[in-house]
Design a protein that fits this description.
alpha+beta; four-stranded mixed beta sheet; three-stranded antiparallel beta sheet; 306 residues; 10 strands
């Protein structure tokens, strides 16, 4: 299995919906209990992707998982294409796919591949979880061709990754690339306005999180909770808070960059703040404020582009 998209603490994000760690692990447990696989390998590319399996994925269900990042940090995109105006890959995914293209998968084991990818991915901490009892199995058993018996290796020189960017900054980075490359004045102006709007939405959203934290913990603790990077054994409290924010404040599936700030929920939950207190603050804040436009970035646009 392979998932490549956005994520956050205890969450992976689809374009308009969220999948929580408990839901994913429940699904994997159901698959195990109903003998829906013999051995399963899961590659997960997302920010804070380690939080989906840490302390949750059993070690005896024949599921071996590797993730692009640990439970508290971002993953990174790479290979910007100026024609398509997008990043073509993510550092972790590029590394394991290029390994699969170049290695002899009939002899390389799952553990060897994991170790190579971990070493080559220098932008985030690649992790492994679950059942490692079969990590000495050849990768071809899971990524092989017909009948899993043949493989083709290539010796194509890998293009070095020199443009890795925090996945949460991809939208902004793409707009900045487009503004810098645009020679038509009208089109450049339109792109600048789009960039300003994106930056202002991000600033406004962060301010919303800060006000929610202030309602729960007090103004003096806002900075600490907004900057803490910690992991939990149980994300149920965070899930309740994130569901409420997604439903009441902002569609986090469509604005997955904002998932970074849900680390504030992690920080408060780690201090045994009742989930219902956070949910009440979310509802009070987002039901009492109109979406705000900060406007600050309209003044710093030129400095952002140099």
């Amino acid at each position: 299995m392979n998932f490549v998209d956005h994520g956050g603490p205890g969450i992976i994000a689809f374009p308009s919906e969220l999948l929580h760690a408990s839901d994913l692990n429940d699904a994997l447990s159901y698959m195990n209990q109903n003998s829906m696989y013999s051995e399963l390998v899961f590659y997960l590319e997302a920010c804070e992707s380690g939080s989906m399996f840490q302390s949750t994925l059993p070690t005896n269900t024949k599921i071996f998982a590797t993730t692009a990042a640990d439970a508290t940090h971002s993953s990174y995109a790479c290979y910007y294409d100026s024609t398509l105006h997008t990043y073509l890959g993510d550092v972790y995914s590029v590394n394991w796919l290029q390994n699969a293209d170049s290695a002899d998968l009939s002899t390389e084991t799952l553990y060897q591949q994991y170790s190579i990818v971990k070493q080559e991915t220098n932008t985030s901490t690649v992790c492994q979880f679950g059942d490692v009892s079969f990590d000495n199995s050849p990768v071809i058993n899971f990524l092989g061709g017909p009948n899993g018996t043949t493989t083709t290796t290539t010796t194509t020189t890998r293009a070095p990754i020199t443009d890795a960017v925090d996945s949460r900054m991809v939208e902004i980075s793409i707009l900045m690339h487009r503004v810098q490359a645009e020679t038509d004045v009208a089109k450049r102006t339109a792109l600048e306005k789009e960039l300003v709007a994106a930056l202002d939405l991000r600033a406004s959203t962060r301010a919303t999180f800060e006000r929610i934290v202030a309602r729960v913990a007090g103004d003096e603790h806002v900075h600490r909770h907004m900057t803490n990077r910690i992991s939990l054994r149980d994300y149920s409290c965070v899930e309740m808070a994130t569901r409420a924010f997604h439903a009441t404040c902002l569609n986090l599936g469509a604005n997955a960059w904002a998932l970074e700030h849900t680390m504030a929920f992690v920080s408060m939950c780690a201090e045994n703040t009742p989930a219902l207190d956070i949910v009440d603050a979310i509802r009070a804040e987002c039901n009492s404020h109109e979406p705000q436009t900060v406007g600050f970035f309209s003044f710093c646009l030129q400095s952002c582009l140099v």
